[in-house]
Specification:
The complex is a heterodimer of chains A (49) and B (364). Chain A is mostly helical. Helix content of chain A is 94%, strand content 0%. Chain B is built from twelve helices and 15 strands. The chains are: A mainly alpha (49), B alpha+beta (364).
């Protein structure tokens, strides 16, 4: 396989990984972060009482 | 939605510092930070037991997310390496065929891809198609399917031992005509009009309904007598002879229904497939479902040239949709679960890596 083909394949790999990173990982990370914030707020509120 | 695919010839990733390791590092950094914050709270003495349980569950979820992403990057790199390795076989000038200790005269390459296919002249069988299969299961399958009408007939399977190499090849009968994709794309003198009439050199050859009806018989026979799902029915794998009779070709990834429920969780390799219904419980679905999941938009439905219920009237689209809801709920919600089948993961990546950058299906 020539170099150009190899480079194109690498580009595709990165594109797929980027899509998965943006569409799957970041979304799920945000979800966990939101749940964490809720938990943090809940603890703060309780401590204030 | 953000446009993620680029026009052909444009660099897909302009940023040269962007590589697999950098993304994996980014993920590791983000999850470590998140874990640190959650653990800090979980270790507070003032925290109640239910809150501690909630924090523990968040820790588990974060760890699973990182593990899932790492698995994805590993599988993706492996799928790429596999493609690179297979592509070192040079078929374009027929040299590989000359290396076979068999008297074959290469005529032309008729299909390119991971598994290239070459048209040759064989001293005994005449025009044959030679292909190196990805696995030996395809040979067993073709052997069993020899008497089933509508399946391209294997004339010989062959093990090359020349130069100390052991390479198996399949020789199948050459169907002189076209593949259905050519008719749809109006290539090589073939075409199909809006009424579903298929023409060769402006002469009416057959109709879409006739093709579908014959294909249906073949597929149902394969399901019933061989307990096999083709997994790869698409216009390019449906050959039409000069009279317009359809033949199924390329059984690289056929699987048996005996795998039972497991099949329900597997996705086929190419988008836009018709569904295959092996039984009420075993359904083979299109990859579109999985790309829809990645985009977060869920299942988009079918855009195939075929009408699914027409091709497989035994199937029930409503049931599949309900099934799909269950996939989402039970199996696919979690990134680790979504990609925990190595086959599924690789299959998806192999498919994506073989797409042209201009292909609209990149628009995930």
């Amino acid at each position: 396989m020539d170099q150009t083909k190899k480079e194109k394949l690498t580009e595709k790999i990165l594109l797929i990984l980027n899509v998965i990173y943006e569409r799957v990982f970041l979304v799920k990370q945000r979800n966990i972060e939101n749940k964490f914030k809720d938990l943090e707020n809940k603890i703060d509120q309780r401590n204030k009482k | 939605m953000k446009e993620v695919y680029k026009k052909e010839d444009e660099p897909i990733q302009g940023d040269k510092s962007f590589n697999v390791e950098s993304v994996v590092d980014k993920v590791k950094g983000a999850t470590s930070e998140l874990l640190r914050k959650i653990r800090r709270i979980a270790e507070k003495p003032s925290i109640t037991e239910p809150e501690r349980t909630e924090a523990a569950s968040l820790i588990k979820e974060t760890e699973r997310l990182e593990k899932g992403f790492n698995l994805i990057s590993e599988e993706l790199t492996a799928a790429g390496a596999e493609i690179l390795e297979k592509s070192t076989v040079n078929w374009s000038d027929g040299e590989t065929i000359k290396n076979f200790d068999i008297d074959l005269k290469p005529i032309k390459q008729i299909h390119s891809g991971v598994n290239s296919v070459f048209l040759c002249e064989h001293p005994k069988h005449g025009k044959v198609v030679i292909k190196i299969p990805s696995n030996k299961e395809e040979i067993d399958f073709l052997e069993k399917a020899k008497k089933i009408p509508g399946v391209v007939r294997m004339v010989e399977d062959y093990e090359n031992k020349k130069n100390g190499k052991k390479e198996t090849a399949i020789l199948t009968k050459y169907i002189e005509g076209a593949n259905l994709a050519m008719a749809i794309e109006k290539e090589g003198g073939w075409s199909i009009d809006n009424n579903g009439v298929i023409f060769r050199d402006k002469e009416k050859i057959t109709t879409k309904e006739e093709v579908i009806s014959k294909l249906r018989e073949t597929v149902l026979t394969l399901h019933k007598s061989l307990d096999r799902a083709c997994f790869d029915i698409k216009p390019v794998n449906i050959l039409l002879d000069k009279e317009g009779n359809p033949y199924l070709f390329d059984f690289d990834i056929q699987f048996g229904a005996s795998r039972g429920q497991e099949l329900r969780k597997w996705f086929v390799q190419t988008l836009k497939y018709p569904l295959e219904f092996l039984s009420d419980k075993v359904i083979v679905g299109p990859l579109e479902a999985i790309t829809g999941l990645i985009s977060g938009e869920g299942f988009q439905g079918f855009k195939d040239w075929f009408s699914i219920p027409t091709l497989f009237p035994g199937g029930n689209l409503k049931n599949f949709r309900e099934d799909f809801k269950n996939y989402k709920k039970d199996d696919l919600e979690d990134v680790e679960n979504l990609f925990n089948s190595k086959y599924r993961c690789k299959s998806l990546f192999r498919f994506l890596l073989n797409l042209r950058p201009s292909d609209k299906r990149w628009n995930l």
